[in-house]
Design brief:
single chain; alpha/beta; 14-stranded parallel sheet; two-stranded parallel sheet; 18 strands; 17% strand; globular
Length: 505
């Protein structure tokens, strides 16, 4: 017993002399920086409502603050670590109040989702009954909002949210605003009734610095929307004809956004009957354009009205009509609309082969092509298996004009719904012509021995759409209107009336 007591203090002293763990020896400033590098607000601006299959119960900032006393002290004195205000369930409101205090005066990313009554699960989602509490928590800090993303799923919640947002809320730092209303309308009458309600002004007149705007199922006073100017990104979706901007309003919006870089229109945009401007609207900085479920006449008018020579990425989902006139217009020799196009994605299209071939002939700069032949005629792929005369006064030793493949700069091909023998033929054709395609992305349902054997000629990778039957269980009940892209679309009206199906790029 004595021996133990004699050696006890010596052992304790020896332990106390052990150097602290390396992580504890980091300077506070460096440890704080490490925390910020690991911090993730969990929001993808392109798919803000797409949940992870298993959303963590503890966020990163909370986790690091629970490791030890030292880490907690550093974390609590790092305001930038507490700026993600996510409100998706009742407990998040209490958490948000704590985060708002810890973030001090730093800018905030605010994210709020209110589900429809029939989808509400107490403790797991937010409902209309908690909407006022949620807004009362975040609106006193509106001057610190950097991004503001709100989604509602029923008309009552939409009206309640509008009451809060029509008040004067100073938002001098707001850069990103996304307002979503997605609902299962059930009947055409319900859809029509929702679109006949007059819009209300949001955020009373004030100097705004908003650069990114998404309005999905939300119609506003277009002529009085000060936040639709000076934008670099604009997304409009799910607006019936009656509530879309008029031709004059649309032209004003475009002229007020000369620095626009990304434009996405999904069953939206200007009304069908536009007044053509005396001069085209120059969008010289526009690099990304996406057009989905838009009538042919509107698309043609947009092409005529807007000058977009620097578009690098074009995405088209245009079913249910013959869009051959569009490709005739895009391939006019005296005015190539997209002379610098590099990435082309087509998920749905009805078009005749000839105008499609003419379009390909004038887009030799494309490096990545993505096509979903589940909703695109396979005939359009056949055009890629033919040559075109080489531009310029070049000829072979026999004096005949040289030919080159279509899309000579192609580096990546991504396809779905294409017979494997067609893909094999394409890869061999390109290799034999001296224009091999370095990488092919192949839908996993096309996988067989033939596609696997392509790895000797090109790098092959397989991908999965989350609307595939065998992948349905991997997703939760979360989806966005964008996820309709690979579903069984029928009509535009039904697109608005039904619940979106799952899809993810």
């Amino acid at each position: 017993m004595l021996s133990r007591r004699r050696h006890g203090p010596s052992h304790t002293a020896h332990s106390a002399q052990q150097p602290p763990a390396p992580a504890l020896r980091l300077p506070v400033e460096l440890l704080s920086r490490v925390f910020l590098l690991g911090f993730d607000n969990g929001i993808d601006p392109r798919y803000p409502f797409k949940r992870r299959p298993l959303e963590p119960t503890t966020t990163f900032e909370v986790l690091v603050s629970h490791v030890c006393h030292h880490w907690r002290s550093v974390a609590l004195h790092t305001p930038c670590l507490w700026t993600s205000i996510r409100l998706r369930k009742g407990s998040h409101i209490t958490r948000a109040k704590t985060f708002l205090k810890r973030s001090q005066s730093v800018l905030l990313d605010v994210f709020l989702e209110i589900v429809a009554p029939h989808d509400h699960i107490s403790g797991h989602t937010l409902s209309l009954a908690e909407l006022d509490d949620a807004f009362d928590t975040i609106t006193p800090h509106s001057s610190r909002w950097s991004s503001f993303i709100v989604r509602v799923n029923d008309m009552e919640s939409k009206e309640a949210a509008r009451r809060h947002l029509r008040r004067y809320l100073p938002i001098p730092s707001l850069k990103t605003m996304q307002l979503w209303h997605l609902e299962d309308w059930g009947t055409a009458q319900n859809l029509w009734a929702s679109n006949t309600r007059p819009p209300v002004p949001l955020f009373y007149k004030q100097e705004l610095n908003i650069r990114h705007v998404s309005l999905v199922g939300i119609n506003l006073l277009w002529a009085q929307s000060g936040y639709l100017s000076g934008l670099t990104q604009l997304e409009l979706a799910l607006h019936s004809e009656a509530v879309r901007p008029s031709g004059e309003d649309w032209e004003t919006i475009m002229r007020n956004c000369p620095d626009l870089e990304r434009l996405s229109l999904h069953y939206s945009g200007p009304r069908a009957h536009l007044i053509s401007p005396e001069r085209a609207v120059a969008l010289l900085r526009l690099t990304n354009l996406s057009l989905t479920d838009i009538d042919l006449d509107v698309v043609l008018q947009l092409i005529r009205q807007m000058e977009m020579p620097n578009v690098r990425a074009l995405k088209l989902e245009l079913p249910d009509q013959d869009f051959s006139p569009l490709f005739h217009r895009l391939s006019k020799p005296d005015h190539i609309v997209f002379p610098h196009l590099e990435r082309l994605c087509i998920t749905a299209l009805d078009c005749e082969p000839d105008p499609w071939r003419a379009f390909l002939a004038c887009t030799s700069s494309i490096t990545r092509l993505e096509m979903d032949f589940r909703r695109v005629p396979v005939d359009l792929f056949e055009a890629l298996l033919t040559n075109v005369p080489s531009p310029g006064p070049f000829s072979d030793i026999h004096g005949e004009s040289l030919c080159v493949v279509r899309l000579p700069s192609l580096q990546e091909l991504k396809v779905a719904g294409l017979p494997s023998n067609g893909l094999t033929k394409f890869v061999s054709f390109r290799a034999d012509a001296g224009y091999p395609v370095p990488r092919c992305w192949v839908h996993h349902k096309l996988r067989n021995e033939a596609t696997d054997s392509l790895s000797t000629q090109t790098e092959v990778e397989y991908f999965v759409y989350s609307d595939d039957d065998d992948d349905a269980d991997d997703d939760d009940d979360e989806c966005s209107y964008r996820e309709v892209a690979s579903g069984d679309l029928v009509s535009e009206k039904e697109l608005l009336m039904r619940n979106p199906v799952r899809h993810s790029d």
